[in-house]
Amino acid sequence: MTKPAKWILTGIILLFITGIIVYPRIKDQMESKEEKVAAPPAPVPSQRRLPLSINAVVMKKQSLTDKTISTGTTIPDEEVDLSFESSGKIVSIHFNEGRHVKQGDLLAKINDQPLQAELKKLETQIPLAKERVFRQGTLLKKDAVSQEAYEQVTTELDKLMADIELVKAKILQTELRAPFDGIIGLRLVSEGAYATPATIVANLTKISPLKIEFSINESYVSEVADGTDIAFYMESASRMMQKHNAKVYAVESKLALETRTLKVRALYPNTNEAILPGRTLSVEIVRREIRDALAVPSEAIIPEMGKNIVYLYKNGAAKAVEIITGLRTESYVQSLEGLQPGDTVITTGVMQLRTGMNVTIDNLKE
């Protein structure tokens, strides 16, 4: 077979194989076009729409309060870890754990026998020292001794009395007394233990009154000062939030650099000592209150091109109205212009609404 004949045969074989592969696809496309031509046209949907079900609220004047909320904690009015001022063996403990104690009550004592013995030794020297001063004074009046000799015995008496006062002060350091009225906590030592100034005997706290500590954002600094009334909420045993009132008594002198917040403390009487230190609570500060405000639910307002739009219910249809807003709270926005008492404002489905759209009220809040 000549070379041209081989090329012709090869071309025929390739065309045959290509036809086998392509033919089924061409056939399917032609059948699909025939089905589309033969298929009946889809029915045109009805242009009528059912009214949109919405919720609405009737506008009326009400009190609107601007508040700031912060998280705080309760801390004792006074608190101290009790320890001795000197070292020694604890010989007695005079308090019951978890009980009230009064300022000055003796709580514990360490061994002071060496100091008592030293005090007794010094006190026995007082009569002799005083007698020397008396004799030297008598002789000085007769010019029998010098002024220097008299001053020497006088100085020795003063030194003796100072040594006695020093020993008495050291004896006082062996006594642990309550620095203020409060509740003493759990005992951390036992009688017979050796205590040093680093040894904590117990914790003493004063919880009436109780301090409320919280922080506020730098933008609210001007709203809080000494004497500002606050309210705080905490969960009770019945899982209900209880409200309590307190008064600010101190404000930190500078903002915290890390958080840009200002630390504030308030006092709560806590007369029955029902609230313990360490509780987490929510602090509420009232910035201002408007008594006759038209309050629009925040979910009813649509920001649009720099404007605030709400939809009113008018004779079964929605109507867009622009409002001028004032005070904003967590749930409501004050309407200064655009609404009147008695207007029915739509609060749900507002993103679907258009002026003139048919709506039906599903739930109306008056």
Which structural traits does this protein have?
single chain; 366 residues; alpha+beta; four-stranded antiparallel beta sheet; 4 helices; 41% strand
Describe the structure.
Helices cover 24% and strands 41% of the residues. The protein has 366 residues and is of the alpha+beta class. The strands form three sheets. It has a six-stranded antiparallel barrel. Strands 6-5-3-8 form a four-stranded antiparallel sheet, with no helix packed on it. A three-stranded mixed sheet has the order 18-1-19, with no helix packed on it. The longest helix has 36 residues, at 3-38. The radius of gyration is 46 Å and the shape is elongated.
Please compute the radius of gyration using only Cα atoms.
46 Å
First-to-last CA distance: 102 Å
Order of helical and strand elements: HEEEEEHHHEEEEEEEEEEEEEE
Overall strand count: 19
Please tally the helical runs, counting DSSP H or I stretches of 4 or more residues: 4
User: Main β-sheet: number of strands, strand sense, barrel status?
Assistant: 6 strands, antiparallel, barrel
Strand content: 35-45%
Unreliable sequence segments:
35-40, 42-47
Shape descriptor: elongated
> Helix share of residues?
10-25%
Structure classification: alpha+beta
Spatial ordering of strands, largest sheet: 2-9-12-11-10-13
Average pLDDT, rounded to a whole number, is 88
